[in-house]
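WARN retry 2 of 3 for item q-0093 after timeout on previous attempt; input resubmitted unchanged.
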Amino acid sequence: MQNTSIGTKARPQEEDHVPPLKGIRVLAFTHYAAGPIAAQYLGSLGAEVVKIEAPAGDYQRKWIKEPTADPDAPSPYFLGMNRNQRSLSIDLKTPEAQAVIREMISQADVILENFRPGVLERMGIGSSAVLAEHPGIIYCSIAAYGPAGPSRNKPALDLIIQALSGIASLGGAADGPPVPAGAYVVDTYTASQAVIGVQAALRQRDQTGLGQWVRVDMMSCALHLLASESCYALNAQEPASRGRNGISHSHQPAPYGIYSTLDGAIALVAYSASLPDLAAALGLSKQIIPLLAGKGPWTNRDQIAGILSGRLRQLTSYDALTRLAPTGILLAPVRSIDQALADPDVASELVRDVEHSYGGRYRVALEPLKLSGSALVFNRPAPDLGEHSVEVLRETGINQDRIDAMIASGAVRVPGSPENRT
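OK item q-0093 returned
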C-alpha cells in the first residue's frame, strides 16, 4: 500500500521542481565568511538574495589568492562563498542610501547580517527597529559571541574562536603546541546553524504570521560542534589529554590517528579486537600483543602508537595499505584537497565549472544537501561589485533619475565606474 502520511507526495518531474525557498527575498548585510556562506546556502535553496556591499566591497573579494595573481583578480574564497546572490553596492552612511534600504526592507522576508553588534543599529536598521516596524520579518544575526556575555561587542575570527572554545586544544601531540583545524570549520558550522534558524523561523511564520530575531554566535556554535567532547568534559572525573605519537583524538585509544609513511601518511582506526591482526600484518606482534591486556589500547595508547609509527615510516603508503587491508580495519591515505576533489565519489555532483565576466573560468564546490523533490539552485556565479545595483533598485521601485543621482554622488556603485577602479 502506498504511504499517504502527511508530507508524502508524488515526486514531481524534473522540470516542475520548485526550490524550497522560492519567493523568499533575503537582504544580506554580510562579509568575511560565516555570513556569505549562510547567504549562499539560502540562495541555493531558492531564495532571492541581494548582497548589500559598501562601495569598497566585501573585504573577502581580494583577500586570499595566489601571490602571483593580478591585483584586481577576485579571490577564489569570494567566488566560492558568494554564489546565488546579486550585489547592490551602496554607501549606507548616506541618508539617501539608508532611505533606499528601508524601502527594500519593507519588501524583504529575511535580513541576514554578520556585522559587529551596534553597526546596523546606529543606522536605524538593527533588529529591534526593523521588527518593530515589520513584525513579519525574519532578522538573523551572526555574531562572534552571545548577546548577553561580556564579550558580546568584540570581534573575532575563526582561529580566535577555535582557540577560546577548546577546539584547538584537541589537536596536535601532547608534547607539542595545540594544532587548530586546517579549515574555517567554525565559520562554516555557524553559517549552517543560521540557515537552520532562518528556515525554522520561516516555517513558524507560516503558522503564526510573525517573524522573529534569529541569533547565532560563533562561540556557542563551536561548543556545539564539540557536543560529544563538551559532554565528556562536563561529566568526566579526569580531563582527557592529547596523545604523543599520532593519536588524533584525546578520547580515542590506539591506533586512532594519522601516521607518516615513506611517501606520505595514512589514517588508521581499529577496534581493540582487531589490534592483534594489525600487529601481525606489520610484523609487530611481539611488541604490541603484550600491551593489549585489559584496557591496554587506552592506557598504553602512546606506546602502541609509537611502535606503529616507527614501523609505518619504513613503508610506502601503498605498501602499508596493502598489508593492512586484509585485517578489515578502517584505513585510508591522507589525500590533498586536489586529490579529494577529483574523487569520482564526489566530483560529478559536487564540483561545478563556472564562466563569468567576474572571475573568468573557475570551478567551485557546491553545497552537499540533496533533496529528492528539488535540486539546489545554481543560477548565479559570485557577482561583481555592484553588478546588480541598478537592477535591484529598479525592482525596489526607485526611479531612474534617482538611481542616476545616487550613482553620480557615489552613494551607489556599479561595475566599471571610476570609483570602483580606484
